[in-house]
Specification:
Blueprint (H helix, E strand, L loop, with lengths): L3 H14 L9 E3 L6 E4 L4 E5 L12 H14 L14 H14 L3 E5 L2 H12 L7 E5 L4 H10 L2 E5 L4 H10 L6 E6 L11 H10 L3 E5 L14 H4 L8 E5 L9 E5 L1 H10 L1 H4 L6 H16 L2 H20 L11 E4 L3 H15 L1 E2 L2 E2 L10 E4 L7 H17 L7
Parallel strand pairs: 3-12, 5-6, 5-7, 7-8, 8-9
Antiparallel strand pairs: 1-2, 2-3, 4-10, 9-10, 11-14, 13-14
Helix pairs in contact: 2-11, 3-11, 4-5, 4-9, 12-14, 13-14
Length: 402
């Protein structure tokens, strides 16, 4: 029998041969100078084009000040689980702010968006002897794992396909407990779910609705409440899940719902009960970020204006990308090795950090660069990016459009 080390090394070699091995950069983000970061390995400044800090709120003075002031007053850690000395007042304030943002009675904060999805979805169905979970085929890994860990019946409908969702709902008894689980903005394709139609179907078939708004909160809706707010259906969705780690620039996740659902998850979810609480300084920083974006549309307006501008520049240059109505711009490469080479060329030769996305995050043959413009990317940065992409696409024999 081969050693454990040999087997692990063999699997890693497979990843590397396929161009799917992940490398981590040693970066230092520069507060007040986003989207620049310092590449410590090569001692130089680079421009980041793939950050999930969509609005640059991680460097906003109000957010940074809230974090520092709270750490000075309350210390670095939470002190325990929420049940054992870990429910600090900033978490209470954050949960009240999140509930109000989404028009719900209560919210519940987790240490990450992944944890919120996995924990909530694995717990929901346990109240019922039989429970059906109906999930979009492109839902995030955290949702897939939560559904799997629920050990309840699952049904997968074709991505954003209302007719296929209807077909599945028609298979299930009207009075059978069930939930429809979907995202509002899908991060790899940048497309938007037919939220209003899903809500309508759910009502017709007596189903709960669970929406993941992680790529939409802060950036869509008049107060940053997400696609559900923008479409006017937030009040009709049973459970809204979101993150504090993207538009809000900090870390953490949450669900917002009515009092009974929140109390049920709080009381029965092991992933919540047995986890040390979010540190109070982070909760305070997140709360400051949410409050700012509820009262300021400047950042999201600039984000969408820059996204539209960059899409126009990419189209003029013939760079192949998926055209959507969101801020996410997937530039298609279609080859894992070439995607990796493009990433390396942009970083090493142009000082541009644009991480390639390969299998298993996206299907093989659809490898891509996930471009994320922010309010802080200048037109000069956009021109540099487009010129560099055109150069490297031509060099790698990737067909340009037009």
């Amino acid at each position: 029998m081969r050693s454990y080390e040999e087997k692990f090394a063999e699997k890693l070699a497979e990843l590397k041969r396929g161009g799917n091995y992940r490398k981590f950069l040693d970066l230092s983000r520069e507060s007040g100078n986003f989207p620049y970061a310092y590449d410590n390995a090569n001692n130089r400044e680079i421009v980041v084009w793939c950050s999930n800090d969509y609005l640059g709120m991680g460097q906003h003075p109000d957010v940074v000040e809230a974090l520092k002031n709270t750490a000075d007053k309350l210390g670095a850690g939470a002190g325990g689980t929420r049940n054992i000395s870990g429910t600090n007042h900033p978490i209470i304030e954050l949960e009240e702010e999140l509930a109000d943002l989404h028009g719900k009675k209560k919210s519940l904060v987790f240490n990450s968006g992944y944890m919120a999805n996995e924990t909530a979805l694995s717990t929901l169905g346990r109240a019922f002897e039989e429970f059906a979970i109906i999930s979009d085929e492109k839902n995030h890994a955290s949702m897939i794992h939560g559904i799997r860990n629920s050990r309840k019946d699952k049904y997968i409908y074709k991505h954003n396909d209302i007719n296929d969702l209807k077909r599945i709902l028609n298979l299930l008894p009207q009075d059978a407990p069930k939930v429809i689980v979907f995202e509002s903005v899908y991060s790899m394709d940048g497309d938007i779910a037919p939220v209003q139609e899903i809500v309508r179907l759910a009502k017709q078939h007596n189903a709960l609705t669970y929406i993941d708004e992680v790529h939409a909160v802060g950036m869509y809706g008049s107060q940053g409440g997400g696609i559900a707010e923008m479409k006017g259906v937030a009040a009709e969705i049973d459970i809204i899940q979101g993150t504090l780690a993207k538009a809000y620039g900090v870390i953490g996740g949450y669900i917002a719902a009515n009092e009974t659902i929140i109390d049920y998850v709080r009381s029965f979810a092991p992933g919540f009960i047995f986890t040390t609480a979010l540190q109070p300084s982070t909760a305070a920083a997140a709360c400051a970020s949410i409050r700012h974006l509820r009262n300021s549309s400047e950042e999201r307006n600039m984000l969408h204006a820059n996204a539209a501008k960059l899409k126009g520049m990419l189209a003029d240059a013939g760079i192949p990308f998926i055209r959507t109505d969101t801020h996410i711009i997937p530039v298609i490469v279609g080859d894992a090795i070439k995607a990796q080479k493009i990433n390396e060329f942009l970083l090493e030769e142009k000082g541009i950090y644009l991480q390639h996305i390969n299998y298993p995050t996206v299907p093989k043959g659809t490898e891509r660069l996930r471009v994320v413009p922010t309010p802080h990317h200048s037109e000069a940065m956009m021109k540099q990016l487009v010129d560099a992409l055109k150069e490297v696409f031509v060099y790698n024999n990737i067909k340009l459009a037009g």
